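Quarterly update from the structural biology core.
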Amino acid sequence: MVEAFNAWYEERRAAYEMENEIIKDKLSQGVNGVEWLVMQKEVRQEDMMGFDRWIVIIKDIEKKNMDSLMIDTLLMNNEDFYEKHELNWWISVSNTLTYLNLLKQRNYDRYSDFIQVLKMRGETP
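Predicted structure, tokenized:
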């Protein structure tokens, strides 16, 4: 099974690494980059299932504030994020983008409020 994964990964390594670089670049652009990522996020059924599991871990097990954690996800680099929260940054980025995509579709006022808080936190030194 490990060999099959390694073969799969080697075939897709360049695309995977490019996607990661795009995400890092867009996050470094602040709110505009985040909004671009939210628009590009295609929410699939497996994203929803992963998001549901992530919510349980964050809220019930880790007892963390969701908004604060998601803002840290978008503003911190992976090392600082892990040091503070002891959570995988890439998984948190994916789930945060899933959440924001759904929030934008279902409750735009709440989405707008989140983006405003993100903008204020991102501008604070």
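The mean pLDDT is 92.
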